[in-house]
Amino acid sequence: MADIPIKPGQLTTRAEMQRVFGGGEREGIVPSTTTPSILIYTDHDSGKEYGYQDGWLAEEDDHGPIFEYTGRGRIGDQTFLGPAGSRNKAILRHVDDGRVLHLFIAAGKIPGSHSDAKQQRYLGEFQLDADLPYTIREASDPEGNQRRIIVFRLRPSGSVQHAKQDVLPAAEKTHARRVSANVSAGSIEEPAAGKKTTSLRSAQPSTMTEHRQTQISQSYREFLNEQQHEVFAYQIKIAGTTSILKTDLYDATDHILYAIKGSSDRQEIRMAIGQLKDYCRHIDPPNPTLAVLVPEKPNADLIDLLERENIKLVHQDGEAFAEHHPTQSHQTPISRK
Known about the structure:
Elements: E1 11-12, H1 14-21, E2 29-31, E3 37-42, H2 44-47, E4 55-56, E5 67-70, H3 82-92, E6 100-109, E7 118-128, E8 134-140, E9 146-160, E10 175-179, H4 208-226, E11 231-237, E12 244-246, E13 249-251, E14 256-260, H5 266-279, E15 289-294, H6 300-308, E16 312-317, E17 320-324, E18 331-334
Parallel strand pairs: 3-6, 14-15, 15-16
Antiparallel strand pairs: 1-7, 2-3, 4-5, 5-9, 6-7, 7-9, 8-9, 10-11, 11-12, 11-13, 13-14, 16-17, 17-18
Protein name: ScoMcrA-like SRA domain-containing protein
InterPro entries: SRA_ScoMcrA
Domain ScoMcrA-like SRA: 12-162
């Protein structure tokens, strides 16, 4: 994209940005119809009313800083589908569509203005994190109803303003909050891509492993629900950090914490063990049984690894599931009926 007449940290208005980039003056996500741009607006004050807060994570990873931005939809579950999800879909597909994300933060009333219009502080150009474009969380709407929200993970694309006032506040204490089991899914239903691409996608195509993880998670939740088990997940805030951890599944009836993987290979099993050992410290009541749920039975060495770590194994076995307990030398089939 050609040079634009605004720099990170500069104050502007929505009206001025409409003249520069095209698009409307309303909405938080504004895809332009005249330039390859999507304008993204956030407001530290109004977001809290709808159960979320946008800003920089205090922690950086190997790829640098992350700005969390909550998707469109003030009431009910947020989505990528239909008219309600079209603007979220625009962000999700922005690389495929050749669009640049321009991020703005509200910065008080426009001096001398008689309207409620606010100044906008420009942060710079961004793109979605290629490895984890978004995460799903649960939040309260203004009426106190729980809903799923889409939290986009934005990476700087060039020079940006990284101001202290835009960093999310760290949690004062560690807190594990119960949320719907639906939030444990790694993703929500997404619109089908309109074309194939060899470029770095805004959101990488879901891999076979991710599909299998979603499928087995849904199937096993249905199985537990048929058994009248109470199931949910946890969102965990860690004291002194801004990141939010999310468990896969917790069976409150049997006090079992599950890590769910879409593959039974060594990398996935080792990751599941690490997640379980990390998350279980924050579950109340304490000391849950730990379990790994996978699509097929792992090899003997990985089963031995799980046994040594005192972790239960559950895997698909045809139309049913099979359990392998650390203290047993054989698997136990469990039926849907």
